[in-house]
Amino acid sequence: MAKKVAFITGAAQGIGKAIAERLTKDGFAIAVADFNIEGAQKTADELNKTGQAIAVQLDVSKRDEVFAAVEKTVAELGDLNVVVNNAGLGPTTPIETITEEQFEKVYAVNVGSIYWGIQAAIKAFRDKGHGGKIINASSQAGQVGNPNLALYSGTKFAIRGITQTAARDLAKDGITVNAYCPGIVKTPMMMDIAHQVGQENGKDDEWGMKQFSKDIALGRLSEPSDVAACVSYLAGPDSDYMTGQALLIDGGMVF
Ligand code: NAI
């Protein structure tokens, strides 16, 4: 039987890469979609040792590029069953210093990517004559306010709103739409933030990282694979009766 196909954005590194690895184990063929094509190709080469993967370059904030990347995926891998809109930017910015330029960039990448990813998924699923699963990266910061994250948080709350609305709009087409909300995950994005927090307090990156685990009930930061396990559930048949949800996977920060 032909493999099911998953298209994952931001899969060159971090959470997206862990999702690609996990869905490969689950038996999916993977499109590793990323701005960073060298990184995407490296991930795809690793996945090809045990499964099937291609690298696709795109800027998720550009509608045409998202459509082209999804079309390439269907042409090369033969189908599309799951779209994971994972790529995002995570700037920390005091609310009073947010600029128009930052606003436009972060909303275009974090929120624009969700609209374009959903639209491209709908087209591909319809062309293939079946439904599918759309899975969007929100955040713990899309559930509650956090210091200096007004720009980021706004985008991640928006993603929950889009997820809930799209779930209602697309259920008739056999398409489910859910989100995952990671807490604090050990990825390059988080390392950058730890560096910034450390610098602001005259300390090192490790000190910055330690500050984050203080508010986590389970007492440790998340591994990318913790989040990938949650996405595996949302991509698989056990979540068939779930849509419009935002699953928190934060080690106990928000409850
Ligand atoms: P990361 O920064 O480590 O990796 C992001 C990937 O997305 C990179 O490979 C990058 O090249 C790619 N990317 C960035 N902008 C792009 C664009 N315009 N077009 C195509 N690709 C682009 O990020 P990380 O930490 O793996 O985060 C993944 C998602 O999870 C993001 O949406 C983030 O907001 C969310 N998240 C992360 C948390 C964390 O603690 N790391 C916590 C909560 C949510």
UniProtKB/TrEMBL annotation:
It catalyses: (S)-acetoin + NAD(+) = diacetyl + NADH + H(+). NAD(+) binds at residues 13-15, 34, 59-60, 86, 152, 156, 182-187. The active site is at Y152 (proton acceptor). It is an enzyme of class 1 (oxidoreductase). It holds the Pfam family adh_short. This is diacetyl reductase [(S)-acetoin forming]. Gene3D superfamilies: NAD(P)-binding Rossmann-like Domain. One of its GO terms (molecular function) is diacetyl reductase ((S)-acetoin forming) (NAD+) activity. The keyword Ubl conjugation does not apply. Its EC number is 1.1.1.304. GO terms for biological process: acetoin catabolic process; bile acid metabolic process. It comes from Companilactobacillus versmoldensis DSM 14857 = KCTC 3814. Keywords: NAD, Oxidoreductase.
